[in-house]
Structures are given as structure tokens and as C-alpha cells.
Please model this.
Amino acid sequence: GENVEQHPSTLSVQEGDSAVIKCTYSDSASNYFPWYKQELGKRPQLIIDIRSNVGEKKDQRIAVTLNKTAKHFSLHITETQPEDSAVYFCAATYGQNFVFGPGTRLSVLP
Amino acid sequence: GAGVSQSPSNKVTEKGKDVELRCDPISGHTALYWYRQSLGQGLEFLIYFQGNSAPDKSGLPSDRFSAERTGGSVSTLTIQRTQQEDSAVYLCASSSQGPYEQYFGPGTRLTVT
Model:
């Protein structure tokens, strides 16, 4: 089955710096890779996603890159702000389901 | 339009009791997923409904867990004879097609005492 690993498990950055979270997956048939942001006590919110036919996607301060050969994809957040502090989950499709990574707790220090 | 809604938002029950959790997906979304999230943990897939197809129950942890989706819309997750390890937040998500662009509800926090 699909296995999704996510690193690091915790990440602290200074406000204004960049943050990078990396995920690897095992199923070469995976074709859709979303990233979710979950603030404390809130529901996961889809922040960006990428399909397997592109290598990079950007939306303002966030971007996702995909390397299908190496089976890894990464979330990049630039010019971090305190409101970016949350737990971030990556996921990869496995058939009609998702397998989620274990999450990364990002803290942006003012 | 309205997003995914779930009820109740919180449920406290005694060990051994049955509970029902409800999910109202986004109107028109044919795919509906249930997940479980234990405190500080990731999301664990439970069950998936797509249209009128047979549900994918491969994530249900035991036969005490079951789910229905009536009329292709509202879904109910039932946990029978609840155990303390069932305590978690149960999240529902829906999408217009398969796993793509899932939108989550606010969750039901279940506490089994």
C-alpha cells in the first residue's frame, strides 16, 4: 500500500524566513498531492495541491514542487508570518483514497 | 454555498454506549470520506462513499464501526459499544470527484468516559 512520510515533524522559523516541508510517497500510481493546513482546534483546510502532470505550482507565498521520479513533493512558504503557524499535512492519492503524512508543526516566531 | 457540516460538534458518552455521528456534505459532491484524528496525530482513513457504488470500508478499525450514506447525500457513522480508545475527532470530507480537492467539515469530538 501507499506510505507517506513527512519531514520535519516540527519546524520553527523566524518571521519573514522561508519554511520547507518535504514528503515522500511510495506508490508510483499516485497522481494528486494536496497540502492541508490545520490550526489548533480547526478543520484541515486545503491550501494548495498539485497533479502529477506538472512539476511546480505557486499561489502567492506558497508553492509546491513535485519530483515524480524521486517520489517526493515539497511545500514552500516564503515570507512567513505568525498566522502561518499551524500543523501542515501532505497527502498522496492511493486509488480513490488519500494517505496522509503524519504532519509538521510549524511555528513562526515573531 | 454552505460547506461540509457535522453534528454534533461534541459528544461525551459512557463506555459501552452506541453513538451516531452525522455528516452533511457540500451539495452536489458525490464523494464522501470519514477520517479519525486522535489528539496530536494525523488523519486516519475510515470509509469512502462514491455515488451509488459500494463503499470502501477498508479503513474501519473494527466491526463496531459502520457507516451509511442515504440518498447519496447525508452520511452517518455509527460506533457500537464505544471504547475509550474510540475517543478522537471524527472528520468528514466531501469532493466533487473522487479524492481530488476534498473539503473537510468541522469534526465531531468524541469523548468516551
